[in-house]
């Protein structure tokens, strides 16, 4: 899949889809070089808002109850890395897991948004990996350290405007070393995207360019240095990364 189109949410938010050269290390947040050409950075979110346990079977595979309300947590913008850039397996952890997700790019400032109006606040869609140091997540009892390491939020390789996407038909696939590990339609979400936007904007303001990671389907698992990961939102975007030791 190749997209070499320059998109904009508005005049203040230029977004450049990367070229498809296999040696380019770049993505939607970051810079890269190929044949001397500078790849322009894309949007830079003020925050990354994530939804935990948003698929019934994923909650079950980790032995957790199905939540009655969305579980919201944050990943810091410093955790962002780009398509074809590596995920660093930190020395502090012995168990890092992949979680492939659909990412939603916020298109305009959003506060107290109703579920019915929520789609109009979606600027576009991308692919996200919510990398998690599972041992630290369990040890700490909260998720900041386990999900907040540098490089623990690969995103990209580009994003596609919402008006070009049939959101109801989207699905998320994650491959580990070429083998499919996750594959589910977003219709399997416990809390759909409009509800999530309504829920989040009851207590905070989403800014243009902010990223929402909408939750992961079942099939998460561990990675090791040397592994390669792909997240596909078929017909929309493909994200590729690889794991290296710190």
Characterize the overall form: globular
Q: Characterize the biggest β-sheet.
A: 7 strands, mixed
Instruction: Tell me the fraction of residues in β-strands, as a range.
Output: 35-45%
E-strand count: 19
Output mean pLDDT: 84
CATH superfamily: Fumarylacetoacetase-like, C-terminal domain
Helical content class: 10-25%
Low-confidence stretches: 1-42
CATH class: Alpha Beta
Task: Predict the CATH topology.
Answer: Fumarylacetoacetate hydrolase, domain 2
Distance between the termini: 31 Å
Task: Specify the number of helices.
Answer: 4
Describe the structure concisely for a colleague.
The protein is mostly beta strands.
Structure in words:
With 246 residues, the chain is mainly β. It has one domain: Fumarylacetoacetase-like, C-terminal domain (Fumarylacetoacetate hydrolase, domain 2), CATH 3.90.850. The chain contains 4 helices and 19 strands. The strands form 5 sheets. The protein has a 7-stranded mixed sheet with strand order 6-5-16-10-11-13-7. A 5-stranded mixed sheet has the order 8-19-18-14-15, with no helix packed on it. It has a 3-stranded antiparallel sheet with strand order 12-9-17.
